[in-house]
Fold these 3 entries.
Entry 1:
Amino acid sequence: MDREAEILQLSSQRLLAFKDKHKGERCVIIGNGPSLNRMDLSFLKQEICFGVNKIYLGFQQWDFLPKYYIAVNPLVIQQNADQISQIPSIKFISNRGIPYLEPQEDLIFIRTHPDNGKPFCSNPIDGLQEGNTVTYVAMQLAYYMGFETVILIGIDHHYIAAGKPHAEVVSQGEDLNHFHPDYFGPGVRWHLPDLAGSERFYKIAYAYFWVNDRQIIDGTVGGRCAVFPKGDYQELFFLAWLKFFQYFLNLLIELGLFYLVKRVSKIERETRKLICLSL
C-alpha cells in the first residue's frame, strides 16, 4: 500500500465519527467573497461554520474561528500549507494536499481527485465530488454530518477576471474578488473560476437536500447565484436570537408580575390583620 492510500484509509476510519454528528442542526458555509465586508459577522460565534481556503485572513478581524475548515484546490494548498496546518479547526483536505501537508490529529484527508463519478456524494468515505468549487465539497460534508439547514454567506458568484475556466494565472495586483486584498495578491498563482460549472453542481446539491427534507438557503449579501432560495442574513441570524430574547423577556415579565401580585396580596392580608387587631 502506497503512502497516499495508507493516509486515506486512516482518514476514512476517522470520518465515521462525523456521520450524523449534527443531525437536525443548522450550519453556515462561508464563501470568501467581498460581500463579507458588508456584513455584521458577530453572529458567527454562535453558529457551526465551515470555512474554506484563505478564510484565515479574516480570523483576527472577525474574532472568530470556524469549527470546520476545508481546502481542495492544489494551488491554494501548496502555497498556503504552513498557514493551513496552523488553523485550530478540524480540517478536511483533498488528497491533492497529501504532498504538502503532514498528517495531524485535527486533519482528515478525503479523496476528491479523481472523483468517484457520483455527482453528489453523501458518504465522504467513498470520496467527494469537487463540483468546481470548494463550497460544493462543504455541502456534501454538511449532508454527511446530518445538518438539516445550510446557510450560505460570502458566495458572491461574481469575479472581476476574464479567461478560460480553471486556467492557472498569476495575480498582478490586489485581489478585488475576495474579502481581503491579499487573498490572491500580487504574485499568487490561482485558477480562474468556473461559475457555470459550479451552478450545475449547486443545482444538484439543492435538489439532493430538498428531496431529503433538508434545505440550503443563500444569505449572501448581493450574491448573484440564482440557484438557491434567498434569505436576509439579519433575519436568519439576528432576528432569531432577538425573538428568543423577547420570548425570554416576556416570560420574566410574566413571572415578575405573578410574583408582584402574590406579594401585593400578602401585604393586603397582613394589613387587614393589623386593622382587625387595632379595633
Entry 2:
Amino acid sequence: MAHNKTRDLLYARGKRLTVPVRVAQGIVIGLKMDGMTNEQIALEAAISMGTVSDIARGYRLAASQSPMRVHVNTVHRLSKVRPPKVPERPRGGALPAVGSLRRIDALCLQGYPLKWIFHRITGHTGGYDTFMHRRRTEYKATREATLRTYQELSVKSPDDFGIPAASQSRAITYARKRGAAAGHCWDDATWNDADAIPEWTGRCGTTDGYQIHRREQDLFWKWTTRDRTKGTWVVGCEPCRKAHSEAKHS
C-alpha cells in the first residue's frame, strides 16, 4: 500500500520510480573506493550482489549494454550504506613485516587466494597488493592478526572454506612464482629473520641440498629477465642453485 502511494504521488508530480544508473553508480563506486566489496555493499543495502555489479558497471550484461535505470528504493538503500570504520592504528613503532609476508605466502602455497587471506586478516581487501609488494614494516596489531590467521588456516584446507579448485591452482602458481616457501621451511627462530633462508631439504644453501632437490625433482620458478616478464621452472631453490654453481666453478 505504501509503495502504491509513493508511486501515485511521484506519477502525479510527473516523476518516475526509476532514475538513471549514474545516480546509484556514484554511490557504489565511492563505497568500493572506501574498501567495500560488492558482497558487503549488497548485504548492507539488502539488495542482490548482481544488482551491485550491474550498477558499478553501468549496464546489465543480459541487456546487451542498453541504458540502465535504477529504482529509487535501491538508490535510497545504497545511500544509507556506510563503509566499516577503520580501526585506529596502535601507537608505537613499526615492526619488520618479513614474517607476516612469509606466512601469507605459505598460505598461498596451500591454495588460499591472496585477496581472500588479506580479507581474513584485515576485514577488507583494500591495499593488499601494496602490502605484499611494497610494505616492509607493519604494526604490532597487523602482525598478531596475521599470526592468528596463519595458525587457523595452516591446519585446514582451502576445501574446508569452499574455495574452488581453479582459485586454489592460481594461488599456488602465484605463490611459487613469488618464491614462496612452505610453512614447514620456517621455525620460530627464522620466521621474522630477514637473513634466514627457507629450509626445504634440511641442507638448503649447500651442494647436498641441491642434490636432494635434484633427486626429488623439486621445481622452482626462476625469472629470466630483470623486469620479470619471462621465467622458467628449474630444479632447486635459489640458495641451493647458487651453492651448486659456486662449487661447479671453483
Entry 3:
Amino acid sequence: MKSKQPLYQYFTRFEELIFIALLYIEFCPMTDILLNKTGDLLIQNGDIVIGYSDNQHQEDILLASKGDYKEFPELGVGISNMLNEDDFMPFLIEAKKNLEYDGMIINNLKFEENGNLNIDGYYK
C-alpha cells in the first residue's frame, strides 16, 4: 500500500513559492512600507522598514480627501474638513464607508470623550 505524500512534495520550486506566498497573504496581517510620524519613510539601520500597516492604512484613508488617490478617486474621508463642523455624524458615515471599501469589517466607529476616534474592526 502506498503511503500518502504531503501535498507540497508534488510542487515544483516555483509552485512551492507561490503556495507559500498565498498562505502568507491569507493568514498574515497587512504589511507594507512603514512611515514615521511626519509621513516620511521609516528607516532603521539604513533600511526601509516593512511591517504591520493596518493602522497606517486607516490613518491614510481618514486624512486623504476624495481625489487624492488617482487610482481610487472616491477613496478618502478628509478629516481636516471636519474640524470646524458641529455635526460629525456625516464624517463617521463617510469613514465607515471608506474603511469598508478598503476591506475592513467595521463593528463600531465612534468618537471617545477625549476626542480620539475609536475604530473597532478588522481586515478580512
